[in-house]
Design a protein that fits this description.
This protein has helices at residues 12-44, 52-75, 78-98, 105-136. By secondary structure, it is mostly helical.
Length: 140
C-alpha cells in the first residue's frame, strides 16, 4: 500500500478568525441555553401556587452541568469544549422529548436548536484549536 501524505495544515491567519468566531458562538449559545432553561422553569412551568423552592432546585439541577463547563469555555480550553460536546447531548434529548408536548413545543425546538448550535460551534472550535496548536508547534 502506498503511504498517504498528510494533508497540510491551514495557515494561522486562516485559523485565527475561525477560532474567535467559534468560541464566541459557543459561549453565546451556552448563555442562551442557560437563559432558556431559567425562563422555561420560572415563567412557563409555574404552578398556580407559585414557584417556591421547587423551581429553584429544578433550575439548579438543570444548570449544574452547564456551569461545570462554563468556566473552561470562558477560558478557552479546547478540552472543555470537547466535554461540552459530550454533555450537550442531554439537553438535545430533553429538547426533542419536550418538542412532543403540545403546549410548549416551541421551547423544545429552541432547546434543540441551541444545543445543536453549541455542539457544532464547540466541535469546530476544538478542531481548529488543535490544528492551531500543531501549526504553532512547527508542524507543516
Amino acid at each position: 500500500m502506498a503511504k498517504k501524505t498528510p494533508k497540510p495544515l491551514p495557515e494561522l491567519s486562516w485559523l485565527e478568525p475561525r477560532l474567535r468566531i467559534s468560541r464566541l458562538l459557543s459561549l453565546a449559545s451556552l448563555a442562551a441555553l442557560a437563559a432558556l432553561i431559567v425562563a422555561w422553569n420560572l415563567i412557563f412551568t409555574l404552578r398556580p401556587s407559585g414557584a417556591g423552592l421547587g423551581a429553584v432546585v429544578i433550575i439548579s439541577i438543570a444548570l449544574f452541568p452547564l456551569l461545570i463547563v462554563a468556566l473552561g469555555m470562558i477560558l478557552g480550553s479546547a478540552k472543555t469544549h470537547i466535554w461540552a460536546c459530550i454533555l450537550i447531548n442531554v439537553y438535545f434529548v430533553h429538547g426533542v422529548l419536550a418538542s412532543f408536548a403540545s403546549e410548549q413545543a416551541w421551547l423544545g425546538y429552541a432547546e434543540v436548536a441551541l444545543s445543536a448550535l453549541l455542539f457544532g460551534s464547540a466541535f469546530m472550535h476544538t478542531l481548529w484549536c488543535f490544528k492551531y496548536q500543531r501549526k504553532l508547534a512547527g508542524e507543516a
